Amino acid sequence: MIGLKISLSILLVVMTINYIPVKAAPQFDLLGGYDLIGVCITNCAQCKKMFGEFFEGHLCAEACIQFKGKMVPDCEDINSIAPFLNKLN
């Protein structure tokens, strides 16, 4: 009976831990600033998930590297992602 109570207690603790929301930590570079290229590429991946075949994720990632993360795409801002959208026929 005691073993069952302990097992149920452990199960309850594990289930509680699984439901605690976790916030992602911002990405930092070695000099203590934000890793702009990482944030940029992460946003490209998010836009690719949202828009699928209509979004050229590889072109977006290449632009992140070329411009060193200075232009970060915002999936909800058409002006920032327009260069990476295509029309499927």
From TrEMBL:
Pfam families found in the cross-reference section: Eclosion
Gene Ontology molecular function terms on file: ecdysis-triggering hormone activity
Annotated coiled-coil segments of the chain: none
Bridged cysteine pairs (disulfide): 40-64, 44-60, 47-75
Signal peptide stretch: 1-24
Highest taxon of the lineage: Eukaryota
GO cellular component: extracellular region
Chief location of this protein within or outside the cell: secreted
Keyword Signal assigned: yes
Similarity comment: Belongs to the insect eclosion hormone family.
Protein name: Eclosion hormone
Gene designation: 6047352
